[in-house]
What we know:
The protein is built from eleven helices and 23 strands. A hairpin with a 6-residue loop joins strand 22 (639-643) and strand 23. It has helices spanning 156-163, 169-186, 317-359, 367-408, 478-499, 517-526, 536-559, 588-600, 614-618, 625-630, 664-676; strands at 3-5, 10-12, 17-35, 47-48, 54-55, 58-59, 65-73, 83-89, 107-112, 117-122, 131-140, 143-153, 433-440, 449-454, 461-464, 468-469, 475-476, 505-510, 574-582, 606-612, 632-634, 639-643, 650-655. By secondary structure, the protein is of the alpha+beta class. It is globular. The protein starts with a strand and ends in a 5-residue tail after the last helix. Helix 3 (317-359) runs antiparallel to helix 4 (367-408), helix 5 (478-499) packs across helix 11 (664-676) and helix 7 (536-559) runs parallel beside helix 8 (588-600). The longest helix has 43 residues, at 317-359. Helix content is 30%, strand content 20%. Strands 1, 2, 3, 4, 5, 6, 7, 8, 9, 10, 11 and 12 form a twelve-stranded mixed sheet that branches. The protein has a five-stranded parallel sheet with strand order 18-19-20-15-21, sandwiched between helices.
Amino acid sequence: MTAELTRGQNHPLPRARLEIRVSAGTPVVAGATLGDENGTVHGVEQVAHPGSPTLPGLEVSRQAAADHRLAVDLDAVPDAVHRVSVLLALPVGGAGPVRFGAVAAPFVSVTGLDGDEVASYTITGLDAESAVVALELYRRQDTWKVRAVGQGYAGGLPELLTDQNLPQAHQLAGRIQEAVASGLARSVPAPPARAADGDRARPAATPAHGPDHGTAPQAGPGPVAPASPYDAQGAPAPAPQPPGAPGQHGTQQPCPDGPPDPAHAGRPSTPAAGGPIDYSHPRRQNAAPPPPPPTAPPAEPGQPARPVAGDATGWSMEERLYNQVWGMFEDLARTAAAYRSAVDFADSRMEKELDQALSDPRNRIGGQGDAAREAARARHGQLVSQAREVLDRDVAQLVAEAGVVEPALPAAFARWDNPVWHAYRVPMEIPMALRLGDLHLPEADGIRVPMLMRLPLERGLWIDSGRSTSTDGSSADSHEMRRLGLEAAVAHAARLLAVYPAGEFTVHVIDPAGSGTQALAPLVRSGVLAAPPAHGAAGAADVLARLTQRVDLVQMALRAGAPDALPPGLDTSQQLLIVNEFPHGFDDRAVNQLRYLADEGPAVGVHLMLVADREESAGYGPLLDPLWRSLLRLTPVADDHLADPWVGHAWTYEPSLVPPGSQVLQQVLAQVASARRPWGR
């Protein structure tokens, strides 16, 4: 699983032999230092650089280049070394840029030797700096980790090496630059990368550049790391060639499980003039050897190619659609991040220009000052307009892709209003994932991306029935929110029952005060519940005791290596417990049993779905905090409480609810109940 780091974050390294890949918008010098546990570098012999590229367990490039691969073997690093710092610097004395602020943000990734990405970091926020400590690998209790550093130095390599407590820092920096200069004199341009047969990556989006915005050259041959969706100044940066290795990456995340090794690079893009749009995700071609993908109908001459449902890798159409949905989610996250960064850059630039205009006393009064301020605002408007144009173009492509993907989704991935439910039949096998709702961003309100969670569930759900103001401005009182919360829980439970084969999923309900009778009616009337909803303290205690006993028995059987030794009559199907108005009516023993089920249940097929007011529950003290943290919070109304693990957007979540007046829920549950009767459930 890939971790996309931000400054200061760390991530464990699962293996010792690694590659550190660097992608920059201009030739840079790559090096590394070996430090002790305090970070001190004890001599020039502890620095790997183009003039001395090899150290024990470490090898760097011999020349400056826009793309680097540094080889690291942590098992071969001396025991006294506790920190390996990766350094990047701009060559001096040439015609290239003299500060990182004038080029696209450097991208650094840590990969295995097979190309699988472990962690990545886009070094943003650089301006006048000409050298930077990109990241460091450090030893902590015999375990190696990687940390994103991003510490820049306006004084270049001499200042950086001095800060590393290195003796003779200035002399060493001079020798490094001399070695780089001689290497550049012998270098030739790298040929453009060639995509592998069958790779169909989106072309790069056109960046909304302003002055001083650099452009990234073409990547050299071989797989490269993805570039940042925005450059150091915040404007969208060109996307790289499609990488050759899959990866994946984590506030509550809207993709807690995520697709198998999805990519986190790339975003929708614009075609070249007159060229076709390719809707495939840049890193969807490596998950598995797929069957031949569907082909798009031929496009009209001069028109862009139409998107295709299932245009992603996978052994089956279901897997291809699953990967395509999450690729769309990542694309939308990236293009929105690029737009927001470009707007932030435009705002900061206008403020700087206005401050400069006002700092001159001659401009404070008269037409000259007014003209300077008007020019600053005009440049701001131009940058924002360019960024919005790119965003609108990218979103339009995603809207077109969603338009063909949504109708093609199987029932487990589809909305309740999708016609696929009218042809519903109880499945013979468990699907890959389940749709819990939709996600969207304010910049692209016209597109909804399905929120899919892998099956079997790895964590329970907390349906927050607390007082809330929906994103559309409407508000609901506590009574209405409790009703909506339980209706959402019923819709989720019905979908789980519908996507499991007959007899392989069982639902229990605890309704202590009996207040959920109306909302629970579809489950009760159809006969799909294991037993009528349990009321009162005694009923709750009985259900909890039976499920706790089931978890204990299955755990003991698995630990003993005898899964077939379970007692006769034990229900081995997946179990879901819906608890309404928690924690009303629950004593400390019952709460502890729920905590036990939340922690231990998912591993042996017992899952929780609590309908509760989070703020009300907080009044019961810290006893409920672990339970709250172990569950995924969802809301019965649209709410922007979810965040993605890459750029931290606040995504608006909309629950997957049955349309008002629709009979689809009753029809589906009737088929489930009919299929369960031969199983005696």
